[in-house]
Records
---
Amino acid sequence: MKVVEIQNLTFSYSRSASPTIDDFSFSMNTGEIVGVLGQSGSGKSTLLRLISGLEMPKKGSITIAGKPVVNDRLFVQPEDRGVGMVFQDYALFPHMTVKENILFGLSRMAKKDRKPRVKEMLELVQMEDFGDRYPHELSGGQQQRVALARALAPKPKVLLMDEPFSNLDADLKESIREDLLLILKKANMTCMIVTHDRNDVEAICNYSITMCPLIAEQGAAGEKFQTL
Ligand SMILES: Nc1ncnc2c1ncn2[C@@H]1O[C@H](COP(=O)(O)OP(=O)(O)OP(=O)(O)O)[C@@H](O)[C@H]1O
């Protein structure tokens, strides 16, 4: 089943500028992990922002799990799209414990289901013993796991990760990649990962797309590499 379908997406940051994303079409199936490569400024983060609803396209449409989230007549708010995000800096709330951070995204879940879901997520990322700690009491890799648990807790249809490894040192990066792959597979999560590092793609992704500056699309102007 197609989880993400993007058709003819065009976006500019200002009316006069040439488009950052130009007539981009792409789709992802359930459980696929796709790497997004491309030089700095080619529009990788912008693509994630468009999918998650943080930006509005000029043209085109996005459908998530069969539900249109943006087209020329419709704009669904980010919180209603079923999209989870993990940012480069993890964006954990410093004044909240690990448990509270994970709980934060569950306001729409029935109250009785929230605590069990937090527990399930802590188990998934193997952080059961760290639930009462604050982010500053965790290593970079542990913070990343918490960010992942928080993003997965509301059961998103798709997970978007923007440079999730860039704050980790090389040794940690390798083990975290393996852990991430296991966690994503366990959750059968469909995931898009922006990275500068082809090794990330080779270790985790089913395939990658490469964004080209000004013109970004799969196929003609973009490249698609099968890695697994
Ligand atoms: N808020 C903004 N206002 C105007 N232009 C922006 C804004 N954010 C990004 N841009 C521009 O849009 C283009 C694409 O930026 P984007 O952050 O998507 O690139 P990227 O491929 O993720 O880059 P990097 O690899 O450096 O993170 C760049 O030229 C950037 O300068």
Note: DSSP finds six helices and eleven strands in the chain.
---
Amino acid sequence: MNSGVLKKHIFSFGVTVIFMILPPSHILQAENLSKRVSSDRWLFRHLNLSLVTGEQLALQGASGVGKSTLLNLLAGLEEPDSGRILYYAQDLALMSEPDRLALRRTAFGFVFQAFHLMPHLNALQNVMVPCLLAGMPVNQAAEQASHLLDLLGLSQSFEAFPSTLSGGEQQRVSLARALVHKPTLVLADEPTGNLDPKTATQALDLLCNTCRSQNAALLMVTHSADAAARLDRTFVLTG
Ligand SMILES: Nc1ncnc2c1ncn2[C@@H]1O[C@H](COP(=O)(O)OP(=O)(O)OP(=O)(O)O)[C@@H](O)[C@H]1O
């Protein structure tokens, strides 16, 4: 073995050992998080939650307990009353608004409960938005968006505007939009809540498999015990 090859072997062995010794890195940490929605109502107090890179976590809890609010806090869309949220050890509250916006656009993927599709854009254009915001060429964005819409059974609906789509179709467009730019963290609020059982299984397969293959962490709100059981771990939010 010549010395160049030997050095390469020693280097890759060293990298492997470092990965084995280091604890898994936290992509997201919520520390001592508290949120109050009125003078006498706290949704949660001193909540701690963390996700490691590539981990899939189900978020469960009774209706109205604060799951969507927690997702909004973790995404930096709302501010906690106390506590902090770290993305790879960076405190979201200490980032400038442009940096936080850039992080949300490039690293995060969202499936909102209310979809939040842009009404003046068709399904394909809605899914292309995160790619275009990340600076991807239009052709490539269209290719990635149409591939995901195909996989979600929406190949006939590229040109359809949100108002002409059913709730389940809008939800699948919203799911495609959350994944299309290959985010590192996907926050999904009941992403299969509007789908029939067969379509829900297909959509969940796509969500979980895409996150696994891209080593993206997934935090998914779900009322379904079956859906939760597919993920690595469940966190139950209690009032
Ligand atoms: N900004 C706010 N001001 C006042 N009340 C709020 C605010 N945000 C959330 N709430 C209240 O907090 C509670 C939790 O809402 P949230 O949507 O987070 O619950 P959830 O657990 O996601 O519920 P579901 O499972 O029904 O979707 C609700 O009672 C809601 O009305």
Note: Residues 3-21 form the longest helix (19 residues).
